[in-house]
Design brief:
Length: 154
Amino acid sequence: MRSSLRRSCPAETDTLALGERIGRALVPGDLLCLTGVLGAGKTVLVRGMALGAGIREGAVRSPTFVLHHVYRGTRLVLHHIDLYRLGPGADIALLDVATLLDDGAVAIEWGEFADLQRLAPLWITVDTSDPAARVVELAGESIPERIAAAWSDA
Ligand SMILES: Nc1ncnc2c1ncn2[C@@H]1O[C@H](COP(=O)(O)OP(=O)(O)OP(=O)(O)O)[C@@H](O)[C@H]1O
Ligand SMILES: [Mg+2]
């Protein structure tokens, strides 16, 4: 059953901390599609995920010009993809996301530009409609408890 969780992230540090909690929970095979307007905070979330996955600080850059970065952390390999440049209807067959998932977790900015539904992604939306507080929403058909826990206050 599709469900969703929301969390308010007023400051960049809140978004970073949420990303870090997600990153600590990720395992190979996790596919996260990130969506939200330009500058919403998708890359900030991935920076946090990288920290949580044991990847050295400063490794994550916005991959707008490079389609695919691979970060090898102490705990996890994190693939960071950004489809913005490819635009809607992006053909990502060459990236072979299914194979990337064999050895790592995959976070895809502008994930809505490609047809990824058959890989059953979790969707993370950064909603900036309230300028005072980003709201980060997690949605999916089957959200693992270890990832949902990142949205709780514990
Ligand atoms: N609460 C917040 N959460 C995240 N980022 C914030 C927040 N408040 C301000 N910011 C700022 O918003 C910007 C978010 O940039 P970021 O590169 O993460 O966006 P993006 O969604 O990846 O954009 P793009 O679509 O261009 O890749 C940063 O400059 C960050 O400092
Ligand atoms: Mg970005």
